[in-house]
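Why SpoIVB peptidase S55 domain-containing protein? Reviewers of the renewal asked for a concrete example.
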Amino acid sequence: MKMCHLRNLLLVVFFILIPVHVSAKELIPMGQSIGIQLKLPFVYVSHDILLPNGEWLKQGDKILAIDGTEINQIQQFTEVKKASELRIERANKEKILNLTTEEIQNVLPFLKDETDGIGTLTFLDPTTNEYGALGHQIVDSALTMPPPFTGGAIFLASITQVKKSEPGQPGYKISVVNKERKRLGSVLYNNVYGVFGKWEQGLPQSLRQPIEIMHESEIKRGEAQMLTAIEGEKVEAFTITIDKIDGSNIVFRVTDPKLLSKTGGILQGMSGSPIIQNDRFVGAVTHMFVEHPAKGAALSIGEMLKKSPK
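Here is what the prediction returned.
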């Protein structure tokens, strides 16, 4: 059965973990759609670009220097006022390109010094103010690897539109991320089970109350709820049915009529959506089945909490 990581349009994500204590007994289930920003230590090319002289800048090329000056942020390109020698790295080999001032300005829209994406916030630990999100690792689509980063942040995202999932064609959320608003927290880690960091906004009364973590041996087949946002910033609870539990891996299907009508089942961008059963925290959504979008997979919250960074 073909499965799909729940990525947004900008990222290919396997949509980690900070050192959350295994002894934690209660967590706040979240479900908010979030924008994620990872600041990179270099500038790279996000799309292939054919230059007027017949040379190419290729997706994933790293910009190392302009006229011998090391480059690590896009802002440095705006300061170039003359034709320049561009030193790049491609497939671990260095290459020199000569660009006019006009050409440098024309390639600016295709350069990046950060990785951005959309996902879902999974939990907040009210004791440590640590959060977890996404349920799997972020991999940058242009770099084709988990991006190294020097810092990062998460922001609240608002869902403006939904592209419905159909068999063989995963749908997705279209979101607006307002980075002018206060960021929700830092990003400290991007590991196998998602992004994790420190929450920075206190504990508003609007948040759900902490609930007990359910041990894997206690998870039952049958009805449960998935918390996620499909319109604006509102987090809603939708009915699902858990069909299979295999250790820390869970297979479920969406049975909620409203969610099926609106989304067709699981969407890219739902990675990290919390799953609740009998008022206890079960786990986080991680994948969808491409040919059967109402069917999804999840990871137990207990497993998520055990996988601290090495």
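The chain has two domains: 3-39+114-306, 43-112. This is the kind of structural detail the renewal will allow us to pursue systematically.
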